Input
Amino acid sequence: MDFSILYSEAERIMGGDEGTSVSRLQRLCEFLKEKAPHYNWFGFYIAEKGRRELFLGPFAGEPTEHTRIPFGRGICGQAADSGEAFVVDDVSSASNYLACSIRVKSEIVVPIFAHEREIVAHEREIVGEIDIDSHQARAFSEEDRAFLERLALLVAPDVEALR
Ligand code: SME
Output
């Protein structure tokens, strides 16, 4: 997996002026799901303003019943609470987990923070998350995590616009 090529392509998709925040994020989901064989479901959850709750944003993959997730629930809700990336190598051993499909074996969730302009690091406000499910166990490496943390900075303005 060449993450530097993937990142350049992601920049190209997100950098264009045409389209809307939704259409750019949607294209990015479809592109990454297609190019990374271990990304079987790629989507965004958006943090609702003034409520400790996430709602489903653009995604590529099977539809999910988890269209709203309170902070603290599931992998997504726990990552929102902690503000840290959350990697689950084997979802069958995760206790606070919301299942989407029995084919899913591992998951990574990476928080997205409000765009630079403001605030000192410890007051960063979460605006959304990148969520990826894989049909492979232990699919996500440190390289995935580093790539997705960079991607989170790139998509932050468009994710913020959906709140
Ligand atoms: N598995 C997630 C729910 C979202 S789906 O993966 C799309 C969780 O436990 O929060």
